[in-house]
Structures are given as structure tokens and as C-alpha cells.
Structure prediction request, 108 residues.
Amino acid sequence: MKEIDKIQDAMWLQAFSQVRDKANPIIHKISEAEANRSWEDRLSSFQEGLEKLPAILKSMKQTPKPKTKKLRRFKMLEEHGLDAYIKACECGIKLLKEPSPTGMASRI
Prediction:
């Protein structure tokens, strides 16, 4: 690997990490709400995730492709992981708002 490629990859990794790090507090909040098991906290954190994470994912996807194969794979996996998290927020909201057979909102 050329020295210039190493420098470019290091710069890319730093820029990508700054974008990715914006998702960390949101993901942490969702995890904490899940551990807490409070219906209101879970719904609020899922809604925040659904509101903010798509823009972060879009920013991730807009970062240029890195030169090395390992970093390209890393980028792809991070994007797929965040996309799955967004879909999980959508499902979580749906489950929490969906009426149960007894007529009350699900309190899973």
C-alpha cells in the first residue's frame, strides 16, 4: 500500500467516524430504554431514532468510498447495521402502538 493511500484511508476513517459517532448517543438511549422496560421511554427513544438516524445514515452513505477493501467492507457493514437499527425502531413503534387483543396498547 502506498503511503498516500494510508494517509487517505486514515483521513477517511476519521471523517466517517465523526459521522458514525453522531448515532452513538441515540443508539445508547434506545438500549437504555429497552433495559429499563418503560413503555414511554421505549416509545420516545424509538421515535427519536426514527427521526434522527435516517439523516445520519444518509451522511454515512454520502462519504466517499475508501480505497482499501477492508474499509469499504467496514463502511458497508456500518451502513447496513444502522439501516437495521432504523427498521427496528419502526417495528418497535408499531408494536408499542398496536392495540393488543384486550384493547390496550401493547406493553411488551
Summary: DSSP finds four helices and no strands in the chain. The helical segments are 3-21, 24-36, 39-62, 69-97. The two ends are 51 Å apart (CA to CA).
